[in-house]
Prior knowledge:
Blueprint lengths: L3 E6 L3 H14 L2 E7 L2 H8 L6 E4 L2 E2 L2 E2 H10 L5 E6 L4 H9 L4 E4 L4 H19 L6 H9 L3 H9 L5 H13 L7 H8 L3 H13 L3 E6 L7 E6 L1
Parallel strand pairs: 1-2, 1-3, 3-6, 6-7
Antiparallel strand pairs: 4-5, 8-9
Helix pairs in contact: 8-9, 8-10, 9-10
Amino acid sequence: MNKIKVFIVEDDPMVKEINKKFLEKLGEFEVVDDASSIEEAKRKVRKIEIDLILLDVFLPDGKGIDFLKWIRVEELYLDTILITADKCKLSVDEAFKYGAIDYLIKPFKFERFKEALINYKNRFIELKNTEDINQNYIDKYILNINIEDKEEVDLCKGLNLNTYNKVIEFIKNKRNEKLTAEEIAKGCGLARVTARRYLEKMVEENKVDIYQEYGKIGRPTNYYKMK
């Protein structure tokens, strides 16, 4: 496969260089050019072949989100990952609404950067080279579920894939919290006994950790947390 062509929009020379070195470590990506402002980026993106943009939010002549909006208005088929110190909930929300595929908050570890880039390669580049599109492929593309996993979830104990995904996504979104089966059931709109069945499966698959905490009286309470 040809290397994935990356364009960096970042006004801090040191950060720009760090991102370039991270990409070099991965080996499957090459930086084709960079820009330090929105206007410079607008001039360059039409002139060179680009697959992916690494985009800062705070730039000298505006916000990276505005550049992302411009890309959509101009109907440029470019994928974007935001790399920024901006933790504002509105910025995160806008980024995904306008098609960003990931959002990395500085400072971040190389492993998280690597995960974002590998996910991009696997999900988005593979799609361009696939002719046989079916539901199994979409499930792998969107949900990162292999066909073999899908069949196992469907058949084992009569579990439903959509419900399984709903439960695991709820726990992922609460990654730093320990949750009871009752909290998970309420958050997913399920009966507590139903939620427990899915949680048992996820613990068995080593996707979710289970903890027991004892109160003053009675049986211990089970808590669940994403690995």
